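Recall the central idea of this unit: under ordinary conditions, the amino acid sequence of a chain determines the structure it adopts. In this exercise we apply that idea directly, starting from the sequence alone.
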Amino acid sequence: MTVSNPSPLTSDAGWWRSAVVYQVYVRSFADANGDGIGDLQGIRQRLPYLRELGVDALWLTPFYTSPMVDGGYDVADYRDVDPMFGTLGDFEAMITDAHALGLRIIVDIVPNHTSDQHPWFQAALAAGPGSPERERYLFADGKGEHGEQPPNDWESIFGGPAWTRVPDGQWYLHLFDPAQPDLNWRHPQVRAEFEEVLRFWLDRGVDGFRIDVAHGMIKAEGLPDVGFNSMTTGRRQSELLGKGRLPYFDQDEVHDIYRAWRPILDSYPGGRMAVAEAWAETPQRLARYIGPDELHQAFSFDFLDATWSADSFRKVIDTALAESTIVGAPTTWVLSNHDRQRHVTRYGDGEVGLRRARAAALLMLALPGCAYLYQGEELGLPEVLDLPDELRQDPAFLRTGESRDGCRVPMPWSGELAPYGFGPAGSELSWLPAPATWGALSVAAQTGVPGSTLELYRAALRIRHTHPALAGTGGITWQEADPGVLAFTRSAGDTVLTCVVNLGDAPVRIEGYGTPLVASATVTEQDGGHLLDIDTAVWFERR
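Accordingly, the structure predicted from this sequence is:
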């Protein structure tokens, strides 16, 4: 097959081992046409900003044809762009410009389920029980005298039963919304289809894939009960995510899928990669997704879930680096994403949350491996907690009362009034409203301002890319430190970089680490050393 838009970034096949990847929630990043919804042309226009920020790659959330029941994670056509976001031509123009700026593009792929508007599912509904069309999904007869009860006790991650009954009496499985029916990954047509989908986007120059629900495609044979759910015990099955085994997640057979995908990725030049969004009950089982014959990376959410304490962060870091050594792949670090509350708010909100978020950023960016940033964290954006219920669009909200919309509010670019330059000049539309306080957090308001969160990120990323001690994926050496303080070094020859973070409840005096390079807050000299305030991180250099 002729490659229609080959990536010119072929010089470093291992780029993903130490990259900084910026997640773009497409709907909320930049709106080029003024309809209040972010789009591919908006991303294209803002690529110079991302190049100046200092990231290596963009991860784009789904932009495929979709009814948008779950923000695009309900795909009706995996080979086209939803008109909401533009056209396939817009995508190709965007990726061409990105590559010209030295930015790689990772796209989301959603293989666990399709939209209920996907032609396959519509054909399955029309064909009826026992048909070949239904074999591509997970249809089953119900329990009870007349099949009126679901086939088993499985629960949707979004709350409620994971089964919906159709008029002919059968039930279909949806581990998320009823508009997202699960595919049957034991069916050869399903596997062949997604291998072709991978090639379709690789031919257009895509540098990698983020695999949504990578642990979910294979369900246990016989669809056995879990044994409890929120209806019987008040405890949701999703509480076992990352802590225990569920019959619909992390089944051993899922690895056969990725062993088939890896040769496809390896057949393209330039280090094409894939990263799994996977949950497993132990770090050892999560590590099984990574390897030379499977995937390149798997997200570790333990760093995101760490509490604000030296003990918690050190345990997470030590475990992640140990597993990285075993599998021979880099660790991935992440503080926020489109599914989780922004870390400014998780860490206490307000001034405390922002101070801690800035320190956490320096901690993360000093670690070896690959760092994933979520759009707006470089501005210090907090979670929007007061969105009116009638504006929330997360499908989980109606089922559980929990909503992810607060971390998806559009980016503030400039101006004093909402939507802060999200769209073209004069546009006042925005699919979610931004707070009245976000004018001071906009890109324009922070650019060139010493001490701003944006300039902190730019400085840290510039050092990360140029400092010899931060090159590569080598380990760290912990240093003795006061209680509540983390200190570790990375070195190259005689050059040593030390990251020190005060997570305690009192300022500490430190010495012997050299000259400060960048700090999340003011660091003052004291008696030949430096005074480090609480919730502060600093990088020191010693040559």
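The chain has a mean pLDDT of 94.
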